[in-house]
Amino acid sequence: MSRMRDTLIEPKGSGRGGFIPFITAGDPDLATTELLLVELAAAGADIIELGVPFSDPVADGEVIQRASERALRKGVTLGDTLKCISNVKKHIDLPIVLFSYLNPLLKFGRERLADEAERVGIDAVLITDLTVEEAGPWVRAFHDRAIDMIFLVAPTTSDERLTHITQQASGFIYAVSRAGVTGAQNEMPADAESLVRRVRAVSDLPVAVGFGISTPEQVRQVWRFADGAVIGSALVSQIEKLSSSPHLVARVGEFARSLVARNGTL
Amino acid sequence: MQKPPITKSEPDETGHWSQFGGRYVPETLVAPLDELTNEFLRAREDPNFWGELNQLLRDYCGRPTPLFHARRLTADAGGAQIHLKREDLLHTGAHKINNAVGQALLARRMGKRRVIAETGAGQHGVATATVCALFGLRCIIYMGAEDVRRQALNVFRMRLLGAEVITVNSGTRILKDAINEALRDWVTNVYDTYYLLGSALGPHPYPLMVREFQSVIGREAREEILSATGKLPRALIACVGGGSNAIGLFHPFIADEGVRLIGVEAAGRGDSLGQHAARFHTETGSGGGQVGVLQGTMSYVLQDANGQIATSHSISAGLDYSAVGPEHAFLHDSERAEYARASDAEALEGFQLCAKLEGIIPALETSHAILPAIRVARELSQHDSIIVNLSGRGDKDVQLIADLQSK
Description:
The complex is a heterodimer.
Chain A: H1 3-9, E1 18-24, H2 30-42, E2 48-51, H3 62-73, H4 78-88, E3 96-100, H5 102-108, H6 110-120, E4 124-127, H7 136-143, E5 148-153, H8 159-168, E6 173-176, H9 190-202, E7 207-210, H10 216-225, E8 228-231, H11 233-241, H12 248-260
Parallel strand pairs in A: 1-2, 1-8, 2-3, 3-4, 4-5, 5-6, 6-7, 7-8
Helix pairs in contact in A: 2-4, 2-12, 4-6
Chain B: E1 16-17, E2 20-24, H1 30-44, H2 47-61, E3 67-69, H3 71-77, E4 81-86, H4 96-109, E5 114-119, H5 123-135, E6 138-144, H6 145-150, H7 152-160, E7 164-168, H8 175-188, E8 193-195, H9 206-214, H10 216-229, E9 235-239, H11 244-250, E10 260-268, E11 290-294, E12 296-301, H12 326-333, E13 337-343, H13 344-358, H14 364-367, H15 370-378, E14 385-390, H16 398-406
Parallel strand pairs in B: 4-14, 5-6, 5-8, 6-7, 9-10, 9-14, 10-13
Antiparallel strand pairs in B: 1-2, 2-12, 3-4, 11-12
Helix pairs in contact in B: 2-4, 3-15, 4-5, 4-9, 5-7, 9-11, 10-11
């Protein structure tokens, strides 16, 4: 049984669901990324998504695009990202999802990546631009090493396709809250809840919702109907604002705690 | 090892030419791509669709375009007879309108009122703005800031036609970045928006669909050369950015084994990565492309050792792209087509030759095909013929050339 899955379905009490922060590896630098991962774990993260920077992130809004650019200016690679995870895994025992566009992984090599992912202790992989139709060899390579393959589903995904995707997926299902790129928005669209309902109709996997979640209120709203909330741009935006501050790690930790605080206030 | 000759080039149901092509997109775009594929396949079988398209191509765009026997270029080359397929004579001045009209008809069938497109040299943007004006559709064009600068005339043309031109400042600020922004727009406005992609690239069904709309070039050229010379040409030559004008000319000749298909990539200003757009220049150390995935499709992609997409360079905005259409990758690997290169300087020389010897000012993109065509002609006898796709006219480049000459 997948550890990722168990983490999300175990009861957390007081209406709390899973908290899944996303940050980009190497933003603002690799040493800080390691500290941030440890801090996010301390702040209550249940799973962490670590993004591999990419030159052409078509699914991302401006905030995460800029994070990729900052990391790439420092020359951060997939190899660095793996090393970062390997280092951090010595300090925290938390499931980590490697989050990437396909081309850097393709260039690294599928089997080589699967071997390395197993070695450094990656729990799951999510490839943003790998549709389920093209994913077969990747699913096999990771499953052979007991690594979960997370897939995105969107409000535009048909029920027939949801069935197909959930059969290939393991760990959890990542439900995209709305049609669009990543980035904060004011309201949680009604699309998200109905999408989660549709996933539950065809799969027992836990469901996390992401894209556009930026406030404690939105997190709580998502927890009412889903097993976890993914917070990316809102955190990355804090990292960007604080990038020259000596208190970056502590402040981002505070922000993360505020998102999941019981009383829901900042 | 000798490979068996290719007699056809058709993708499988999910848009793959062997390993190339396919659909590598965020999940949100799969449903609209399926919807588009289904509508395209229905339209392709619908005589009314072709009836309306052919009428527009004739009465609005000016098809068929002539095949012109370029006698002075032929004399200069001293070999095979050079024929120019005059796509530059089309309405809006390039082959791009063939595809834009076809897809605009699809957008209308699908009830989409908002059309978005990317553009490099601006020719596809102008073609899209034109058909949107014709059909009363809202039009938004994404164009990299660098291309806005070097193709200012086309920016003005698009605005005159009622389009909104959005300058893209992300990434390297050229065609690739304009496509990224168009994809981000589409993923956000997926329910009411039609993405009118301009080249034979991107996720399935675009490479197939754009090729089908551009194949009119090759079908006409085949008839025209047979009627003019009584036999097939020995070679076809066309510039390749994404590759729509080339695949449009090549495709109807795929089964004609004796006809060499020669694409010309932009060799830019040097051999190292970042200095050219020669995706098929794959010799070790050449900085050429490797198989990868960019913007929805698997093909040859200029990239670094870590799989980050590399920048490209070409004097012509329309060839300045890091990947190439997947069918070209297939034709390359199956050895049915060959891919030559022309540098910025050779393109400028081709531009001048065509202007001075034939009185035709070609687009800088098209100009890349001229010197390679002369080299091919020289290897053949005067009883042979070759066809060069004169894919666009060069009015848009005159200012840039003038600036270069005054330096």
